[in-house]
Amino acid sequence: MGAKRGGRLVGASIQRMLTEAELEAAIERGARQLSPALASEYEAAGPGALDPLERHALLLGYFRYGPCPNVDAVVLHLSALIGLRPECACLALGWVSRESHPMHHSRVAASWRSAVDKSSNTSALLNAFHFFELGDEDYAGRLLKRGLAASPSDSVWHSAAGSYYLRRGARNADRTQLLLAHAHYAEALSLSECEQDSALGLVAYSALKAGKPEDARQAALQAVAGRGPARGVNQHLGHTVLGMLACERGDLEQAASHLLASAADVPQSYLSTSGPRLELAQRLLVTGKSVPVEAFVAKLVSIWPCGAARLHAVLDVV
């Protein structure tokens, strides 16, 4: 994309709109190739010196991953990119966390809100929805309605809706919201073969939460029998559901077996983003079944070492 001339990284085309992949490549180049002197030069560059998208991407990479991390500069260039290309705002996810940088997170959120409110790009809407989902739920809900209205047959938006309503319904013990979650996950499952692997376990889990045990059991059996790239997630969710149903029947040995199976092959990426479902372990712990719970925790910790403190704290296992 860019060539190095006289010590500078020069954009191949000033007027061309860079693709998202090219922007990501520019971010990587900025992290690897920009020196402090070049970064200062680009910071001071006037209009027309370099494609503005590429300039902000290069500097974003430099200040995010380079030798001189600077969260203020990250926010500055990230906000500029969001303003120019809101569909690329997914770069903000995980970079400026609400917990670590609340003021900077607020600035990024304001830039993103302004850009997305003017955009009809559904990719931008979806990225923004995930960004705001854990913070400003009301605004996330408005984005969700826009996305579903624009793409009513898109399984990804129905999965997003399932996540949104499941979280709200579980927190507020609101069966109406939980039923909505189940309906959207079921719709996602019916709309796309590609989505089926990842939706099966979620259909089972949301059915259980919505008080539909037979639907939950049927979906969970399909989930644990499934194959494909989402097999580990489906195994975790499906066995969790089957274990909870076994608890309801009073079959604690079967429930403990499902608990151990739920931890067998769950991906680290799922644990670090969505987190494990812990209610079956908590239920068994209350009944005195500490040995399988300790084994469950040990298995998850071996997959997800960064989650050890959370797992031990939630389950009170030493």
Provide a descriptive summary of the structure in words.
- It is a single chain.
- The protein is mainly alpha-helical.
- It contains 17 helices and two strands.
- Helix 8 packs antiparallel against helix 9 and helix 10 (193-209) packs parallel to helix 12.
- Mean pLDDT is 81; it is low at 1-15.
Features:
318 residues, mainly alpha, two-stranded antiparallel sheet, 17 helices, 2 strands, globular
- Total number of beta strands: 2
The chain-level structural class is mainly alpha
Coarse shape: globular
Cα-to-Cα separation, first versus last residue: 53 Å
Strand order of the largest sheet: 1-2
Computed Rg: 23 Å
**Major sheet characteristics:** 2 strands, antiparallel
Give the helix tally: 17
Beta-strand proportion: under 5%
**Helix and strand pattern:** EEHHHHHHHHHHHHHHHHH
Which segments are poorly predicted (pLDDT under 50) over 5 or more consecutive residues? 1-15
